[in-house]
Amino acid sequence: MSPQDFNPTAPSVPVVDAAAAGRVAPFLRAVYGWMFIGLGITAVTAFVVASSPAMVTTIATNRVLFWALIIAQLGLVVVLSARVQKLSPAVASLLFLLYSGLTGVTFAFILLAYTGQSVAQVFVVSAGMFGGLALFGTVTKRDLTGLGQFAMMGLFGVVIATIVGLFWHNDSFQIVLSICGVVAFTALTVWDANRLRAMALALPEGGGGSYAILGALRLYLDFINLFLFLLRLFGNRR
After folding, report:
1. Which residues of 133-166 are buried (b: 16+ CB within 10 A; e: fewer)?
2. Is the alpha carbon torsion for 23, 189, 32, 73 positive or negative?
3. CA dist 100 to 37, 124, 174, 194, Å?
4. Residue 7: left if φ>0, alpha if ψ -120 to 50, beta else—which one?
5. Burial of 70 (0-12, 13-18, 19+ CB in 10 A)
6. How many helices (H) and strands (E) does the chain have?
7. pLDDT value at position 204?
8. What is the pLDDT of residues 97-112, one digit of tens each?
9. What distance in Å separates the CA atoms of residue 30 and residue 200, rounded to the nearest whole number?
10. How far apart are CA 107 and CA 181, in angstroms?
């Protein structure tokens, strides 16, 4: 079985030999290592941009630049997800680091919108939740196919509702959307962590490469979105 043949709707924990199981830990270390690097770059970039009134003003007053940043982020996610089989580890790493930096630029406006104390508190809560969910998804022997289907349906619903929210500014709607977002990305975190374990088992020896970057991107997105929805629920605006 190759990574290209990995089917997310199949049973989550395949039966493998001891040699294959021994490849799980190195692969997951690479995945979480890249994820933490990405989060670190995002945090540093956000702090630098937020600390520069000139940069904030330039981005905020230039709609073309702002939307270019958003489109570039979406484009990088699409490229990494769709072309992971053809990307070298070096190129995949570079694209992931670039995406992390661009995300940090847009995150600067979140730091400015909420108090520093509430951002720190929600970050700690998000990190704790994410760690517990990812651990459960990695070690559980349950078939999480049903959870994955629920998570994907929830994700599509949240995306559609977010688009609606751009045009319909209603406080009650935003609260419900944030709660649904937390639920959806809670499920996605468990499912993605479980799928990464299955992916590691399917990889040939020494074949982590770009797939570790893809795994890091998935978990990075889960954490970022979980943090954002929790911040919208519990964060204190300036």
Report:
1. bbeebbeeeeebbebbebbeebbeebeebeeebe
2. positive
3. 9, 20, 26, 23
4. beta
5. exposed
6. 9, 0
7. 63
8. 999 999 999 899 888 8
9. 11
10. 18
Cα dihedral value 118, 120, 122, 125, nearest 10: -140
Structure tokens given for 157 = 């619903």
Residue reference for tokens 């977002």: 181
Residue 74, class by beta-carbon neighbours within 10 Å (0-12 exposed, 13-18 middle, 19+ buried)?
exposed
pTM, entire model = 0.85
Residue 15 has pLDDT above 80, yes or no: no
Res. 19: pLDDT tops 70: no
Quote the CA–CA distance of 198 and 7 in Å, as a whole number.
10
In 1-115, which residue ranges form alpha helices assigned H by DSSP?
A: 18-21, 24-50, 53-61, 63-82, 89-113
